[in-house]
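User: Predict structure, ligand magnesium ion.
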Amino acid sequence: MRVLGIESSCDDTGVAIVEDGRKILGATVRSSSRIHEDFGGIVPELASREHVMAILPALHSVLTSANVPVDGVDVIAVTRGPGLLGSLLVGVTAAKALALALSRPLVGVHHLEAHLYANALVEPIIFPSVALLVSGGHTALYRWSGHGDLRLLGETVDDAAGEALDKGARTLGLGYPGGPAIESLARTVTRCDLSLPVPRLRRPIHPFDFSFSGLKTALVDLAKNHPHQVDELAFALEAAVVQALVEKTVQAALAEKVKRIYLAGGVSANLRLRQAMTEMAGAQEISVLVPRPQDSTDNGAMVAAAGYYAWQLGGRMSLDQAPKTPFSLG
Ligand SMILES: Nc1ncnc2c1ncn2[C@@H]1O[C@H](COP(=O)(O)OP(=O)(O)OP(=O)(O)O)[C@@H](O)[C@H]1O
Ligand SMILES: [Mg+2]
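Assistant: Predicted complex:
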């Protein structure tokens, strides 16, 4: 079963062909992030224009590299939401056109669920488990009981973890996207005398809610007193974000009595997060699985993998259905 996955929710145009929800036959991601750099964040109008330019060349190159004729695709899967409406429309329109022209089923996928399915490209998912989704726009913990069966355990009440890193990087003059810049600078630090408070919520709505908005103010204050220690400030910011994510996730896994944690989303590419989570969960005999770093950020393969399982469960998107944003999960 070959699923063609299309992702266009934000600033990356991702297309991939995946066999049986697991094996990537061909994949490409065309990012417009460089265009947004000067603005310190994504400009929605520019992002949608870039998707329009990128979508057909991306489709072409994936079909060619996978050596699959266009009618050799069995199902078309596309990110239906959440995301930037103008960006989503480009992917959804391309997917509908293909489904109509080829008479193939169309499946609309939730973007965050697709991020979680980047793990299915490594090995089959073990249920029940706890999944931490940490991306540029979201930070959420789920109990994952089966395909299509996710229950929200907690989420950020303000900024996402990736957003905290992006805003922190901007404060430190490190450019956009901030996560990778913070990570590579923090890696050069062998000794750090600076620290930031690990964010904790006094009165969460869900037991495992997060809050990251206070970190930016704390970082600004610390940077005022230590303006020349940018590398240590980056280290301290990364440490505080990682600690908050690891503590809550391991607590949630213990409360849910599961033996497997999945990480997903752009921030899950962070090596320190991967190592700290593996160490702390390992001490409780809980194993941690992470996607390959290149599958952590937005891509078409995760959409194809999620689409494969959604299709098996009977999920379909009709040609008169529009992108959906906001779009809740679990
Ligand atoms: N190595 C890394 N370490 C830390 N953060 C990282 C790393 N690589 C990417 N990020 C962060 O990941 C985020 C982008 O991830 P992703 O592409 O999954 O988010 P998004 O698609 O923009 O948001 P969403 O999925 O919530 O709509 C950015 O905030 C970026 O700084
Ligand atoms: Mg994303």
